[in-house]
Design goal:
Layout (H helix, E strand, L loop, with lengths): L1 E4 L2 E7 L16 E14 L7 E7 L2 E9 L9 E13 L12 E4 L8
Length: about 120
Amino acid sequence: MHLSVKGKTFPVEFAEDIQKGMMGRDSLEGCMGFNMNRGYHSFWMKDCLIPLDIVFVLKGKISKVFQHCQPCHEDDCQHYTAAGDQIFEFPAGTCDGWVPGDFVNLYLGTKNNPV
């Protein structure tokens, strides 16, 4: 599966465990995706090893972008909350210039051969 935003395409790895997400990982190729019920959701950076950009998507459009979210190793980490039905995490700096209202396209296939 791939995600396209503003002419750039990224492979998507969907998280099997939403509470674990990027915890303990030191790299990410493309982005980590989370399918959610429509509503407000809160993410944090507890035990993450790398800074991330967190993008909330609602009905195929970006609703909020949190850039350069820093790892946290305490219980009192900052929470990043917004409305969405999908959330994507990218390596920090990937989403520079993305704003609410930008379209997000999710599709099967490869960058050069969408299905």
